TrEMBL record:
Name recorded for this polypeptide: DUF2007 domain-containing protein
SUPFAM superfamilies: GlnB-like (SSF54913)
Pfam families for the chain: DUF2007 (PF09413)
Source species, domain of life: Bacteria
Domain DUF2007 per the UniProt entry, residue ranges: 1-66
Matching InterPro entries: DUF2007, N-reg_PII-like_a/b
Organism in which the protein naturally occurs: Acidiphilium iwatense
Length: 68
């Protein structure tokens, strides 16, 4: 797995996950459970990862959408 995005913005992360899924990729949201520890204050970034084989394609999808 390769991390392609890290952000504390949950709305943006949700949008990027949908964008990647629509492109036929299988993104994974990492650090999602940290919200329970931090009390949802948005201090720790969540990360989106894809397989190493799909990383370049995922970056291209994000770049074409103006999101990288």
């Amino acid at each position: 797995m390769e991390v392609i995005v890290a952000s504390t913005d949950t709305i943006r992360l949700s949008f990027l996950m949908a964008l990647l899924r629509d492109a036929g990729l299988a993104p994974v949201l990492l650090d999602q459970n940290i919200a329970a520890v931090e009390g949802n204050i948005g201090m720790f970034p969540r990360r989106i990862a894809v397989s190493a084989a799909d990383a370049e394609r995922a970056r291209r999808v994000l770049r074409e959408a103006g999101e990288e």
